[in-house]
Amino acid sequence: MKAIRRFTVRPVLPEPLRPLSDLARNLRWSWHAETRELFRAVDPDNWRAAGGDPVRVLGAVPAGRLTELARDEQFLARLAAASADLDDYLGGERWYQQHTGGDAAGLPAAIAYFSPEFGVTAALPQYSGGLGILAGDHLKSASDLGVPLIGVGLLYRHGYFRQSLSRDGWQQEHYPLLDPNELPVTLLRQADDTPVRVHLALPGGRSLHAHIWVAQVGRVPLLMLDSDVEENGPSERDVTDRLYGGGSEHRLLQEMLLGIGGVRAVRAYCALTGHAAPEVFHTNEGHAGFLGLERIRELQQDGTGFDAALETVRAGTVFTTHTPVPAGIDRFDRHLVARHFGEGAELPAVDTERILALGRETYPGGDPNVFNMAVMGLRLAQRANGVSTLHGAVSREMFAGLWPGFDPEEVPITSITNGVHAPTWVAPEVRALGARHIGAARAEEALTVGGSLRWDSAADIPGADIWALRRDLREQLVAEVRTRLRASWRERGAGSAELGWIDTVLDPDVLTIGFARRVPSYKRLTLMLRDRERLTRLLLDPERPVQIVVAGKAHPADDGGKRLVRELVRFSDDPRVRHRIVFLPDYGMGMAQKLYPGCDVWLNNPLRPLEACGTSGMKAALNGCLNLSVLDGWWDEWFEPDFGWAIPTADGHGLDEDRRDDLEANALYELIEQRVAPRFYDRDADDLPERWIEMVRHTLADLGPKVLAGRMVREYVEKLYAPAAQAHRALDVPGAAELAAWKSRVRAAWRDVAVDHVEVDEASGVAELGATLGLRVRVALADLTPDDVEVQAVAGRVDASDKLADAQTVPLKPAGGPDQQGRWVYEGPLTLDRTGPFGYTVRILPTHRLLPAGADLGLVALPTEATGEGAGVLMR
């Protein structure tokens, strides 16, 4: 029979064990080894069955065992120590509180961090891939550093799908129902114990209600909105059913709930708990971009006009883009968006046409009939960034149309390279080895704070210890793979009699390559299969064999990705090679924490430059795994031969996709055959691959501190959060109104602003290195004054088409005017500081004390062909 209702019966903990509840409800246990070991001791059998989830352990432990533990003095002492340690962690001063770099008073009181997914722990499956794992690592590192972050997301009742395989290797999706009462979350309640709700108005008089569940991630609260409440109709209850599920309207409602409902949830949480209100709002990708509209509504409700409210919101908003391709951006039909805003829907006091204008693709090649979430995110944020240096450059190119007249390098999108949370991803055995050599406290500091502190000690670890560790981790991976592979084959319908071969799968002494990814086409899951016979020879080489562990999920709607999975699975099913290459279904955090440490080489072969960052290779590197990757994402930035190998690419040569794949696959095979495998198997008299071990040392000592999320979060604080908070404070209500009025005046006048004439002082002499040219520029400023603009000379090398490169700007000074036609004269020196083809031009930009950058308005006046002499190229 089937139950008609399901609920969770919680145990009543004896008084001495009450601290276990607090320890289980704070997700710090997911990266704090001592707390996990404490829960393992509560009930070792249930610990394994619960997948290492303390909440599930406490829900299953027998009452008799609890009584026994309540009398166990040794266990109670461990419990008291763990509880005291958590209290110290939550209340003590950390990096943020002790921060002395720059203007400490400029640090924001709080930051709200919005993301559609968060990968904090496998026990809270609210993530699909890299974006969510990055968001989880961001929260955890912010907690370690004491950064006052509030996370905001959605609670998906089915999470992301679980993956299995059919007998013929086709991906199957399963959506198990998640009960929040069985998760490490707490329902936010009013003082009278009623649940806090946020509400959104929908067309047709309907409403969307949501509860707020709080996951405590160390010091950081993560607020997750849940639409599965009784007050909602059936379709509204399903808004938060699945991560990245449903059609356009479903996704739009998810993103409205995340952005608009998320701001309302933050306000409710701060009012109830006394948490400082955020001064900075950070939107992790465009999914949460509607948060800016809700903040505009709040300001308008207090009497601020739309334009001034927009300036205030922009000043305190940070936008991070994670996609290097337009196809990765959410775009909605503008009529669908219009129907959900305005009279009879959400934000009725905010002009719908102004809302639509924020997301309109007004640039060449854009579609004016769609609403682009990334475009809105950029227009609502004064500060934006990509997630690696290369991705920042790609993003500036991709969004350059929003800043017409500016070269891509001047587009105001910076970059902060992603990092990973080392305490989560470094294997306990690796941490133990570090602690033995530099001490546990110093090792912990190196993992959380970042910088070069203590990492150079890896250079002193004996080679025999490193190699013994690497083999131990490889052996653990072999055992994990066999267990998972056996379970996968049983799901595919195989009986026990068919599975004896699994006991011979992988070998702890063979070079092991890992590849685990989502499976969009650009990540090229099957590049390794381009020449199957050559790959087979690599796998079965009698002297230098290779084994490969592969994992990855295709999006449920991506049949092309599913075909790639099936292609890889069918190859790995071949009895000739199945002991050397395996595909593991249901890639997630639990699998990843075994996979990264156990591999010797981490493979990444995307189509360059389509990998925004690619943090899986970072996690592998922190465990002494070497990277074998295309120069894309973070690897393009930090690759050195000491850390691994760069796969040569054929991008930029105009090759068709098949030809490019053939060339790059061949390069991959050659690297493994000629450089990777020989270095792994080249042993000294003690049977140690000393050159390989030296690369592991360099990876840990030199690359390790760079890839930490602690470094990443510190950069966000110093480069984006603190400036955003200071800009927000500077933009009080009169300041915002002043800036909005100034922008309106500048935009109205700008079509009549022009560079009228440019000339070079003939007394400047010849154009030779070190010479100085005297520039004299006549400009028309219409109704503007020199206080409203900056006139610049822009000079640098030029190519054959006279395009400036490595340009530098030199401000020119007003020297007279206005004349009867309202023209002003600007003058200034221009030094010829380099030889070869050299050129310059001049331009006019708007300037204001509250603008973050000259390109902020996207306005620039440049010389035309009719402008006088001096705007061309000097050849010397």
From TrEMBL:
Molecular function per GO: glycogen phosphorylase activity; pyridoxal phosphate binding
Record-linked Pfam families: DUF3417, Phosphorylase
Record keyword Glycosyltransferase present: yes
Keyword terms of this UniProt record: Allosteric enzyme, Carbohydrate metabolism, Glycosyltransferase, Pyridoxal phosphate, Transferase
Enzyme type, top EC level: transferase
Stretch forming the signal peptide: none
Cofactor field: pyridoxal 5'-phosphate
Coiled-coil portions: none
InterPro entries with a match to the protein in the record: Agluc_phsphrylas, Glyco_trans_35, Glycogen/Maltodextrin_Phosph, Glycogen_phosphorylase_DUF3417, Pyridoxal_P_attach_site
The DUF3417 domain, residue ranges: 13-124
N6-(pyridoxal phosphate)lysine PTM positions: 619
Enzyme Commission no: 2.4.1.1
One of the GO biological process terms: carbohydrate metabolic process
Catalytic activity: [(1->4)-alpha-D-glucosyl](n) + phosphate = [(1->4)-alpha-D-glucosyl](n-1) + alpha-D-glucose 1-phosphate
Family as reported in the entry's similarity comment: Belongs to the glycogen phosphorylase family.
Biological function: Phosphorylase is an important allosteric enzyme in carbohydrate metabolism. Enzymes from different sources differ in their regulatory mechanisms and in their natural substrates. However, all known phosphorylases share catalytic and structural properties.
Protein name: glycogen phosphorylase
Organism: Streptomyces solincola
